[in-house]
Amino acid sequence: MYIYSALRTAWLTFLHLFHATETVQYPEQKPKLSPRYRGRIVLTRDPDGEERCVSCYLCAAVCPCDCIDLQKTSEPDKWIPEYFRINFSRCIFCGFCEEACPTSAIQLIPDFEMSEYNRQSLVYEKENLLIAGTGKVPDYNFYRVAGVKGAGANAAPVDPRGLLP
Amino acid sequence: MTILLSLIQAICILLGIVILAALLTWVERRLLGFWQDRLGPNRVGWEGTLQVVADMVKIFFKEDWTPPFAEKKLFILAPVIVMATLLLGFAIIPFTPSIGIAADLNIGVLFFLGMTSLSVYGVVLAGWASNSKFSLLGGMRAAAQMISYEVFMGLALIGVVMLTGSFDMVDIVKAQAGLWFVVPQFFGFVLFLIAGIAEAHRLPFDLPEGENELGAGFHTEYSSMKFGMFFVGEYAGIVLISAMTVVLYFGGWQGQFLPPGLWFALKVSVFIAFFILLRAALPRPRYDQLMSYGWKLMLPLAIVNLAVTGAVILG
C-alpha cells in the first residue's frame, strides 16, 4: 500500500514538470496591481488645483504606527498644512489614513517600488507627497460641498486652560 | 607511459565527478522548483548555470569555524573520509568499454560495498567529533540506518553476481548484452535502489540530517568548505548509486545507435532525476518505521530474492 501511494505521489509530482510555473519574475515582469492596491501615499489636489488637505490631523490620529507628522497653519480663509511628512520606513500601508481623510486628500496608489539606500530618504516631505491631479476622486472639492470657506480659519487657537470649569 | 595515461584518465574522471556533483546542486534546485511550480535559481548565467560558481565563491569565503568543544583531528578528518570514500567508489565504474579507472577489478562489487561502508565512518565520526547533541543523534541515526540498509543492499546485488558468476563490473555489463538484469532481478533492483537511497542518505531516508528535528544532523557544527565537502559528497553519492544501478541492472553503456558513453550518461541522469523526484514527492518515515522496513521487510525480501534466484539458476 505504501509502495503504491509513494509511486503515485511521485508520478503526480513528476507531472508538475509540465504545469505552468506560478513565479512572477519581478523586475522584468511587473505584477498586476489593482487600482485599489495600497502602495505609496500621495497628497492630491482638488479640481481647481488647490491642496485638498485641511490639516485636520485625522490621518495622524488614526495612523497605527505614528508615521504621519503635520503642522496646521492658515492662509486667509482656509487651513493648510505647514509641513506634512510621512516616514515610509514606519508606514505599514494599512490605508487607515485614506479612510479617515474627510477631504480625500491623502490617497494610496499602486506603487510599491520605493527602496532607498539611506533610511533618511524614506521620510517624504509635503513636496514629495503632493501630486498634480485629483487621484482616485476626480470631482470632489471639499469647500464647495461644505459651503463655507474655512470660517474662523484665522481665529486664535483655543487655550485649553480656558476651558477648565 | 600507460601508467601516466591511466593516471591522467583517473584525475579527469574524478574532477569530472566532483564538478558534476557540484552542478547537481543547481540541477536539483531547478528540478525541485519545476516540480513545485516554481522556477528555481535562473539568474546567474544562462538559466542559472553559473549558480554553482556563485555558491562555491560564497562557501569558500565563509569562516571555516572549528568549534572549541570539538575533537579537532576527527572533526577535520570526517568530511575528508566521506568525500574520499565516495570518490574512490567510482574507481570500479565502467563508464564505457574503454573508460574507467579500474573497471575490470575482479572484486569490483565488493570494493563498491566496502567503500560505501567506509563512508559511514565519515558520517559517524562527524557526529561524534562535533561533540554536540544534534550531531551525535544524527551520527547515531546514520550509523544504524546505513549499517542496516547495507546488509540487504549486499544481499540484493548478490543476485546479479550469481547470474553473472563474477564480481567484475565489466563482466556484469557484458553479461547484460541480451537482456538487462532489471528483468530477471526486478526485486533485486527495487531493493538495491531503496538501499541506495538510504545509503546516500537522501530523502525520504535523510534521517541523519533531519533538519526539522536535528538542526542539520551530523553536519550541524560544520561550516565553509568542510560543510561543502559533505554537500558535494552527498551529491557524489547520488551519482555513484545511480551509476551502480545503471551498471548492475540497466546494462551500463549498452544500447543501440548512440555511442556507449552517451548511453551511460543518459541512463545515469534518469536515475539522478528520479532521486530528485523522490525528494520532491515523499515525506520522511519515522525513525522506527525506517528501521522496521529495513529489518522486517527488506531483509527477508532480499533473502527470498536470493533463494529464488539460486533455485532458478540451479534448476
Summarize the structure.
The complex is a heterodimer of chains A (165) and B (315). Chain A has helices at residues 2-15, 58-62, 96-100, 126-129, 142-146, and strands at 41-43, 68-75, 78-87, 106-108, 123-124.
Tell me what you see in this structure:
- The complex is a heterodimer of chains A (165) and B (315).
- Chain A is an alpha+beta fold.
- Chain A has one domain (30-147): Alpha-Beta Plaits (2-Layer Sandwich).
- Chain A is 20% helix and 16% strand.
- Chain A has five helices and five strands.
- Chain A has helices at residues 2-15, 58-62, 96-100, 126-129, 142-146; strands spanning 41-43, 68-75, 78-87, 106-108, 123-124.
- Chain A has a three-stranded antiparallel β-sheet. Chain A has a two-stranded antiparallel ribbon with strand order 1-4.
- The longest helix of chain A is centred in the first third of the chain and has 14 residues, at 2-15.
- Chain A is elongated.
- The mean pLDDT of chain A is 87.
- With 315 residues, chain B is mostly helical.
- Chain B has one domain.
- At the A-B interface, helix 1 of A face helix 1 and helix 10 of B.
Quaternary state of the chains: heterodimer
Based on secondary structure, the structural category of chain A is: alpha+beta
CATH architecture of chain A: 2-Layer Sandwich
What is the string of SSEs of chain A from the N terminus onward?
HEHEEHEEHH
End-to-end Cα distance of chain A, whole Å, is: 84 Å
Helix content of chain B: 55-70%
Stretches with pLDDT under 50, minimum 5 residues of chain B: none
Largest sheet of chain A: 3 strands, antiparallel
How many individual domains of chain A? 1
What does the radius of gyration of chain A come to? 24 Å
- Continuous helix count of chain A: 5
Helix content of chain A: 10-25%
Helices and strands, with pairings:
The complex is a heterodimer of chains A (165) and B (315).
Chain A: H1 2-15, E1 41-43, H2 58-62, E2 68-75, E3 78-87, H3 96-100, E4 106-108, E5 123-124, H4 126-129, H5 142-146
Antiparallel strand pairs in A: 1-4, 2-3, 3-5
Chain B: H1 2-35, H2 51-61, H3 72-89, H4 108-129, H5 133-164, H6 169-175, H7 186-199, H8 211-214, H9 224-249, H10 260-281, H11 287-314
Helix pairs in contact in B: 1-9, 1-10, 3-4, 3-9, 4-5, 5-7, 5-11, 7-9, 9-10
